[in-house]
Amino acid sequence: MGRARKVVLAYSGGVDTSVCIPYLKEEWGVEEVIALAADLGQGDELGPIQEKALKSGAVESLVADATESFVKDYAFPAIQANALYENRYPLSTALARPLIAKLLVEAAEKYGADAVAHGCTGKGNDQVRFDVSIMALNPSLKVLAPAREWGFSREETIAYGEKFGIPSPVKKSSPYSIDRNLLGRSIEAGVLENPANEPPEEIYLMTKAIADTPDEAEYVEIGFESGIPTSLNGKALSPVALITELNEITGNHGVGRLDMIENRLVGIKSREIYEAPALLVLIQAHRDLESLTLTADVTHYKRGIEETYSHIIYQGLWYSPLKAALDGFIQSTQERVSGTVRVKFLKGNATIVGRWSDNSLYSPDLATYGAEDKFDHKAAEGFIYVWGLPTRIWSQKVRG
């Protein structure tokens, strides 16, 4: 079934994406498959992955170093938006998908491919994020998803690959499905599929168990400029270095784990475990700094925008007109969100214990209960009369 002549495949080096290469050629008549692995700071050695793609039948194997763009162009806007899906998940995995889609589209255009492909199944969120992002960036490109259609079990997938020289995993395969990048890890499947089961300690990699964390507290001062984190403890850091260093500090104190029942885009509830140490703390600190530097009405209105923004990212609509419009609002709010937030780490807790900014709207003379109080207390009575007038009139009518 010839659907495309030349295809760029999002390639991870795993069983599914490796088998996609011969499957596309043998079953769907694709002439050339170009593999594209995206380096998003996942820590894997991409040389062997690149070589594996060629051995699996790819005519070319590309590696895109996109870690800096991942942080600057995707993570930082999400931090400025305090984006937490269902008010918990900081979208560490979801944020990678529009970037990978962009890399696929760019490679397709560069190499003259008429289609792109991915290894997503039909039950997950990522298929939607890839497909819709690709449609937005180049609506004329075909999107192929072999794993969504082949109907193989894992054993059948491995057996199919072996026919074409793709070795089966040497060690016993992990029962967990894991995705990792610089921002964090997502872990699902295995014993985690029963939401009553406590996650085993073995699944965690970026965060320590509470029993293994230091007994002494550690303080970190996070500096922000226009809503973007720029320094730790007064030391200016590049975007990637800042995330890397804060991941280490945060994870060392057992901070950054999430265990949640998540409402997937396709209508299924799934039990998800996340590790996103730096990202969770940065959103917490950023939101706190906003409380110091933004007016009350902007702060309150932005909360609704943030919820919409997190849904947009989760639902694969990064390149949508609504996302672009909301970006304009969010960027406008961030102009004065500069300052420093002090965070105390101890035994699984990240507690904000201080914040300061040249743009602070906090007035000690008005807030104090001491002798320096400059607030005009006499003004309160008239304010309350006007403020409560609608309630008074309503009560008089209702209560007669």
Write up this protein.
Pfam families: Arginosuc_syn_C, Arginosuc_synth. Its EC number is 6.3.4.5. This protein has 13 helices and 14 strands. With 400 residues, it is an alpha/beta fold. A five-stranded parallel sheet has the order 3-2-1-4-5, with helices on both faces. Strands 10-9-8-13-14 form a five-stranded antiparallel sheet. The chain has a four-stranded antiparallel sheet with strand order 6-7-12-11.
Quick overview of this protein structure:
The protein has 400 residues and is of the alpha/beta class.
Mean pLDDT equals: 93
Straight-line distance between termini: 78 Å
CATH class of the largest domain: Alpha Beta
- Helix/strand-derived category reads alpha/beta
The CATH architecture term of the largest domain is: Alpha-Beta Complex
Radius of gyration: 25 Å
Order of helices and strands: EHEHEHHEHEHHEEEEEHEEHHHEEHH
Q: What helical percentage do the residues reach?
A: 40-55%
Please tally the β strands and state the result.
14
* CATH homologous superfamily title of the largest domain: Argininosuccinate synthetase, chain A, domain 2
**What name does CATH use for the topology of the largest domain?**
Argininosuccinate synthetase, chain A, domain 2
> For the report, how would you describe the main beta sheet?
5 strands, parallel
